[in-house]
Amino acid sequence: MCLPWCCWPFVDVELEDPPKKKDKEEKRYIMVEDGSLFYPTPEPKTAPVYYTSYPQYYYVEPAPAPKPATPKPDKHVYWYGSSRQEVDVQNHAIYKAHAKPTPLVPYEPSAEEQFWVRELDGSWTLRTSKDVGDNCQPGYWQQGESGYHHFYRTA
Fold it and tell me: What CA–CA distance (Å, rounded) separates 65 from 20?
């Protein structure tokens, strides 16, 4: 686009032979905003297209039929769940069916960590976890009210 204060001259440059004129040639020009006239560019001729293979057809599986809508009740239906006592009974039944006694053992105590041990005569002694594991078996672990573990010897 040429600006109004610009004076760039337009020159017709033909790179090919000019087209043969017909008896009465009709020229069409393109008007641009600044008033210059341009010849329209000739449309290029397209070459014929030859296909080397047959067109490919695709099979699309039909979508499955939609499920029928479920009917909704006309009135609001109230549903009351189990009471707290019924839930407790159900939970207790599940616990009894699947519960296995698991020994309560301190989680990865160090070899020097000390625990109270209830001896066979009823006295209490302080022993390391290594000593409890090696010399005080058989027995069981129990957690006291204070949260600390105690070992009770049974034989």
Answer: 66
On the question of pLDDT at 153 being above 70, the answer is yes
Question: How many C-alpha atoms does 149 have within 13 Å on its Cβ side?
Answer: 18
Pairing verdict, β 30-31 and 37-38: antiparallel
What single DSSP character describes residue 69? P
As given in the structure block, the two tokens for residue 14 are: 């033909």
Tell me, what amino acid is at 124?
W
Both tokens assigned to 25: 């040639």
E-only strand ranges, the chain: 30-31, 37-38, 114-118, 124-128, 139-143, 149-153
pLDDT band at 89 (very low <50, low <70, confident <90, very high): very high
Rounded average pLDDT over 24-31: 58
Mean pLDDT of the chain: 76
The C-alpha torsion from 129 through 131 and 137 to 139, rounded to 10°, is -40
What are the two backbone dihedrals, phi and then psi, of residue 115, each rounded to the nearest 5 degrees? -135, 155
